[in-house]
Amino acid sequence: MKRYLVLADGKIYPGTGFGAPTATVGELVFNTGMSGYQESITDQSYNGEILMFTYPLIGNYGINRDDHESITPTCKGVVVHEVARRASNWRSEMSLDDYLKQNDIPGITDIDTRAVTKHIREKGAMKATIVDEVLPDTVERLKVTELGKAVVAESSTHNAYPNPATGPNVVVVDFGLKHSILRELAKRHCNLTVLPYNTTASEIMALNPDGVMLTNGPGDPKDVPSALPMIREVEKHIPLFGICLGHQLFALANGADTFKMKFGHRGFNHPVREIATGRIDFTSQNHGYAVSRESLANTDLMITHEEINDDTVEGLRHRDYAAFSVQYHPDAAPGPHDADHIFDEFIDLMAAHQVARKGSKFNA
């Protein structure tokens, strides 16, 4: 079945359809990972985006029940150079084609994804559509299409839910969380309560948490202004840790600014330097916005990590409060596990805060 990838600047790439037989519109972004397509497709940070993989063969190990990062994927489409004709892995339960059909997500294959990636790197991420037929007004209609801004509200849980354990009591504010974040906290015996993105500080404090986690999520952090007063109040009293979108919201709440990157960081090999020690971790990243380095000058935030390739701000810490954040994904699903020690630092921060406040509740 013939299908076309059409970009807002008029570029048209013919290919072959797979997945759901529907048209779609979204922001076209690229991911450079060699594997991990299931985790990426189910990552809520891709809500509203057409996800293009630069690795030439996608789908070769199928889809399994264990590697989902969310129950319902919300990316708008999948673009690949070649989709595997047959999946081969002992954990595979269905093909990528069948999975996309099941979730009403269109795909297009036989695309020169590296050529498209070079174009995006030069021109920047842009709107695109996947269609079965290119009409005279397809590009013009694409140009005037407004992409949704309520992507965090779509991705977040609507109801609180627990993940019980016997360790520190952690409130997780869900802006579009990856399940791997919950797994990493569960490994450390955290008693988790997951709350919606629009939770207030008073609702969080009523749960008497030992720590608060701000998760990853999709879209522009400036489209979630309701989170900022919550962060400003919580960080005064409770250890706070932000990841990805949580990192950007932490920065905005403390007077810094964010900006849209030309084409973002989406891959699993981004080298990040910890400034204090010089330690370098290879990290998993998925973000199209970043914290402005210049905007940090008159805030109480200090830079703790930076991306080696382009100096992007990759970590922040508050000078007065027990609060910090990282732009990358230390949960590393998919990706390298170099940076999972960040979760241990969060545990240590909560323990130290308890010792200072009323005596440790984390005795070995």
From TrEMBL:
The pathway that the record names for this protein is:
Amino-acid biosynthesis; L-arginine biosynthesis; carbamoyl phosphate from bicarbonate: step 1/1; Pyrimidine metabolism; UMP biosynthesis via de novo pathway; (S)-dihydroorotate from bicarbonate: step 1/3
Q: Which Pfam families match?
A: CPSase_sm_chain, GATase
Annotated region CPSase: where?
1-168
Give its E.C. classification number.
6.3.5.5
Q: Where is the active site?
A: 244 (nucleophile), 329, 331
**What keywords are annotated for this sequence in UniProt?**
Amino-acid biosynthesis, Arginine biosynthesis, ATP-binding, Glutamine amidotransferase, Ligase, Nucleotide-binding, Pyrimidine biosynthesis
Q: List the catalytic activities from the record.
A: hydrogencarbonate + L-glutamine + 2 ATP + H2O = carbamoyl phosphate + L-glutamate + 2 ADP + phosphate + 2 H(+); L-glutamine + H2O = L-glutamate + NH4(+)
CDD domains named among the record's database cross-references: GATase1_CPSase (cd01744)
Q: Name one GO biological process term.
A: 'de novo' pyrimidine nucleobase biosynthetic process
Q: Name one GO molecular function term.
A: ATP binding
> Where do the annotations place L-glutamine binding?
45, 217, 219, 245, 248, 286, 288-289
Q: Which InterPro entries match?
A: Anth_synth/Amidotransfase (IPR050472), CarbamoylP_synth_ssu (IPR006274), CarbamoylP_synth_ssu_N (IPR002474), CarbP_synth_ssu_N_sf (IPR036480), Class_I_gatase-like (IPR029062), CPSase_GATase1 (IPR035686), GATASE (IPR017926)
Q: Where are the transmembrane segments?
A: none
The Carbamoyl-phosphate synthase small subunit N-terminal domain covers: 1-131
Q: What does this protein do?
A: Small subunit of the glutamine-dependent carbamoyl phosphate synthetase (CPSase). CPSase catalyzes the formation of carbamoyl phosphate from the ammonia moiety of glutamine, carbonate, and phosphate donated by ATP, constituting the first step of 2 biosynthetic pathways, one leading to arginine and/or urea and the other to pyrimidine nucleotides. The small subunit (glutamine amidotransferase) binds and cleaves glutamine to supply the large subunit with the substrate ammonia.
According to the record's subunit comment, the protein's assembly and interactions are: Composed of two chains; the small (or glutamine) chain promotes the hydrolysis of glutamine to ammonia, which is used by the large (or ammonia) chain to synthesize carbamoyl phosphate. Tetramer of heterodimers (alpha,beta)4.
* Family named by the database record: Belongs to the CarA family.
In its UniProt entry, what is this protein called?
Answer: Carbamoyl phosphate synthase small chain
List the taxonomic lineage: Bacteria, Bacillati, Bacillota, Bacilli, Lactobacillales
